[in-house]
Amino acid sequence: MNYPNGIKKRENKIIYETNYSNRGMVLENELNISNEYYKAIDKAYIFKKPTPIKITKVNYPSRNKAVITEGYFTTPSTTDYNGLYKGKYIDFEAKETKSKTSFALSNIHEHQIEHLKNIDKHKGIAFIIVRFSYHNKTFLLMAKDLIKYIITEERKSIPLSYFEKNAYEIKENYTPRLDYLKIIDQIIGGTEYEWKKRHKKEK
């Protein structure tokens, strides 16, 4: 049986086929492929939220048919991805930057930051994934550390050095491409009790 995005199942084994000509894939595509892999092996169910579109013009060529002729993308109301892993709700935003030294906070809308803050407050797993394209480095920064930086610093960007010190680098992998759940396992401690205990101390 064939699965989407180069994932195949053979003799009860999941084989992840890498096309090396696509090593320059954008972060979103790599995350989508990784999430398809997680789903295929029944590890987690995490999905990309559809980008909201506002329809402004519709053509009706016949009584039972409608053709959208004009529309535009609107600002997402929350974040890029959400889902379930080990009984925990996961919610995160993914961004890329071409800057060599920092990640501009203007890349994340204020209501998205507030959304991540609320998910963390209610004991969900909230974070952002940021790729520094020039350095080919991808980081996972927990929402609490993002909020802490915004509250304590006056800068309008987060320096690369902050990610290197406070975030977790996601190494490019074979199966899946970006195994960010491996980092989540380290953070939540593997059990519900340890996660609640850690979360309480962080508060």
CATH class: Alpha Beta
The stretches of 5 or more residues where confidence is low (pLDDT under 50) are: 1-24
Fraction in helix: 25-40%
Distance between the termini: 46 Å
User: What average pLDDT do the residues reach?
Assistant: 80
Question: What can be said about the biggest beta sheet?
Answer: 6 strands, mixed
CATH architecture level-2 label: 3-Layer(aba) Sandwich
Q: CATH topology, anyone?
A: Trna Endonuclease, Chain: A, domain 1
Q: Report the principal-axis shape.
A: globular
What does this protein structure show overall?
This protein is an alpha+beta fold. The chain has one domain (2-51, 77-202): Trna Endonuclease, Chain: A, domain 1 (3-Layer(aba) Sandwich), CATH 3.40.1350. It is built from six helices and 13 strands. It has helices spanning 27-40, 110-121, 143-152, 160-166, 180-188, 192-202, and strands spanning 2-3, 7-10, 13-16, 45-48, 53-62, 65-73, 81-85, 88-97, 102-104, 125-132, 137-142, 157-159, 168-169. The strands form four sheets. The protein has a six-stranded mixed beta sheet with strand order 4-7-8-10-11-13, with helices on both faces. A three-stranded antiparallel beta sheet has the order 1-2-3, with helices on one face. A hairpin with a 2-residue loop joins β5 (53-62) and β6 (65-73). α2 crosses α3 (143-152). The chain is globular, with a radius of gyration of 19 Å. Residues 1-24 have low confidence and may be disordered.
